[in-house]
Amino acid sequence: MIRFEHVSKRYADGTTAVDDLSFEVREGELVTLVGPSGCGKTTTMKMVNRLIEPTEGRILLDGDDISGIDPVRLRRRIGYVIQQVGLFPHKTVLDNTATVPHLLGVRRAEARARAAELLDLVGLDPATYGDRYPEQLSGGQRQRVGVARALAADPPVLLMDEPFGAVDPVVREHLQTEFLRLQQTLNKTVLFVTHDIEEAVRLGDRIAVYGQGRVEQFDTPPAVLGAP
Ligand code: ADP
Ligand code: ADP
């Protein structure tokens, strides 16, 4: 589904952020990328949706080299959720969720109906929260809207970069549990970045353990935990 072939990224200032990365994520699989700050996790994610380009190597999505896919088309196949979800401040929760599909050509009423379903799915009652503005939500609730919005275009792939990193531990655990349940229903192919090994183990079907710019281990949670 997503295949990295000898992917490297060197930034303009000479920093090698990712060095000869090769691994494959299967369809419907949730792979967590774990490792210390600065080891190249976010760089990896940004290359998958072409926010930045690899210096070497290539990334395949369903067998297609992504460098040949127009970035706008790519966004329909890939949803992205980051730590500080940038919701539109002047749009309601419902409109935040409905905007992208509407821009992609779904009729407004249909986009809003689907947005309400998605809000429900991520645990936000649309009748209660649909008309609120982002600043009227807690951090945990904003992240839920971010997940709903990423799902709105129904992409087969989700990229999640520390999506629960900015909320307190109790809320975080709650969001993890709900996300796992959601994933069982949706069966998306997910790349999930975290610096928290417990989160990586809890959520991942497999874990990519990053060292400096490299994947040092790529295996199931028991295998990673059992390693010396
Ligand atoms: P992580 O997500 O694991 O914290 P990043 O992928 O953000 O790591 O960063 C990997 C390395 O690349 C770090 O050394 C970081 O400082 C560097 N880096 C990230 N973005 C840039 C950039 N735009 N220009 C130069 N160096 C960068
Ligand atoms: P969470 O545990 O999800 O982070 P909080 O403890 O931050 O939630 O918030 C608890 C409740 O207070 C939520 O129902 C939320 O909607 C409400 N709330 C939080 N901030 C605001 C705000 N600025 N305006 C209105 N309601 C708020």
UniProtKB/TrEMBL annotation:
Keyword annotations: ATP-binding, CBS domain, Nucleotide-binding, Repeat, Transport
MF GO annotations: ATP binding
Superkingdom classification of source: Bacteria
Ranges where the ABC transporter domain occurs: 2-228
Annotated family: Belongs to the ABC transporter superfamily.
Protein name per the record: Betaine/proline/choline family ABC transporter ATP-binding protein
Source species of the chain: Streptomyces beihaiensis
